[in-house]
Amino acid sequence: MTFLSKNRNKYFKLHQFIRLAINVVFLFAVWYLFYSFFRDKNFIDYFYEEITYQLTLSQLVVSKIFLNIIGYEVEIYGKTIKIIGSYGVHLDRGCLGRNVIGLFAGFILAYPAKIKSKLWYIPAGISVFFMVNIFRIMALAITDNCCRHQLDFNHHIVFQYLTYGIIIIMWIVWAKFFKKTRKML
Questions:
Q1: What is the pLDDT of residues 97-118, one digit of tens each?
Q2: How far apart are the first and last CA of the chain?
Q3: What is the pLDDT of residues 115-155, one digit of tens each?
Q4: Quick one: three-class SS letters along the chain?
Q5: Is this model's pTM higher than 0.70 or not?
Q6: Cα angle value 89/90/91 (rounded, 5°)
Q7: Per-residue pLDDT, 14
Q8: What burial letters (b/e) apply to 6-19, b meaning 16+ CB within 10 Å?
Q9: Closest Cα to residue 175, out of 76, 104, 69, 126?
Q10: In what side-by-side order are the strands of the sheet with 80-83?
Q11: Which of 32, 107, 121, 167 lies in the 20 to 30 Å Cα band around 175?
Q12: Cα 26 from Cα 18, distance rounded (Å)
């Protein structure tokens, strides 16, 4: 037996919580290294900026389509979506939910489970979060139009709790689903 296979066997014999903690630390280190060392490289920065731009644009356009469907006249100026007659809602980097998506994907990756179950659930969860974020953008645009004084409260309190609540529910559903499928294997 080689050194690697001995340690791999020891790793899989650890309690599930300990393996989760080890995986979380490892993924955090990878994430930190990416942001500390590789993010400054021109080709990675260009790729990162382009993905951010495309994600912003897609969320604004889809939000506009749905707002049009429910009867609002909407304009998009750069990163701002505006119901005609209102000030508009600016979609900045933090509004895209990249950190929440990273947190969600990191938890799924760190949780001790078969890779096959992770490969379908991470994209499914990101898709759910994309739709939740579109709902959030639409709701904030409507709030801006009808009762602007409620905008900050809804943005910083209501939708923060709603978003993290949905992420936690998705984690719990996945963990319970995985637990059931693991027993069946």
A1: 877 888 888 888 887 778 888 8
A2: 27
A3: 888 888 999 999 999 999 999 999 999 999 998 888 888 88
A4: CCHHHHHHHHHHHCCHHHHHHHHHHHHHHHHHHHHHHHCCCHHHHHHHHHHHHHHHHHHHHHHHHHHHHCCCCEEEECCEEEECCCCCEECCHHHHCHHHHHHHHHHHHHCCCCHHHHHHHHHHHHHHHHHHHHHHHHHHHHHHHHCHHHHHHHHHHHHHHHHHHHHHHHHHHHHHHHHHHHHHC
A5: yes
A6: 115
A7: 62
A8: eeeeeeeeeeeeeb
A9: 104
A10: 74-77, 80-83, 89-90
A11: 32
A12: 12
Find residue 86's DSSP bridge partners.
none
**How far is CA 17 from its chain centroid?**
23
Q: Check residues 6 and 93 and name the one with the higher pLDDT.
A: 93
How many CB atoms lie under 10 A from the CB of residue 80?
A: 15
Closest CA to 20 of 103, 100, 107: 107
* CA neighbor of 94 nearest in space, from 125, 128, 43, 137: 137
Structure tokens at 88: 């508009």
What angle in degrees, to the nearest 10, is found between the helix axes of 3-13 and 16-33?
120
Give the pair of three-digit tokens for residue 47.
């790729």
Contact status, residue 51 vs residue 41, Cβ threshold 8 Å = no
